[in-house]
Write a structure and sequence with these properties.
Number of domains: 1
Protein name: DUF1482 domain-containing protein
Number of helices: 2
Oligomer: single chain
Helix content: 10-25%
Radius of gyration: 14 Å
Strand content: 25-35%
Largest sheet: 3 strands, antiparallel
Number of strands: 3
Pfam family, one: DUF1482
Low-confidence stretches: none
InterPro entries: DUF1482
Order of helices and strands: EEHEH
Structural class: alpha+beta
Distance between the termini: 33 Å
């Protein structure tokens, strides 16, 4: 299997923070870019290195 690509949108929060939100994951960069165009979002396609499930996040990171 090849590299997966995530369509990521950065959201500005009302408290001044920013949060990256994964809209979806695609099987190729071309599919991701096509979805970005179809959905009219100004997100970015990033290669996925791996998946971290919420229960696997170390406590010191999860508090931030």
């Amino acid at each position: 299997m090849g590299t997966l690509y995530a369509l990521v949108l950065t959201v500005a929060m009302s408290n001044g923070d920013y949060q990256d939100v994964v809209l979806d994951v695609y099987g190729s960069e071309q599919q991701c870019e096509s979805a970005k165009t179809e959905q009219h979002v100004s997100g970015a396609c990033h290669a996925v290195d791996g998946v971290i499930h919420s229960e696997d996040i170390p406590e010191e990171i999860a508090k931030h």
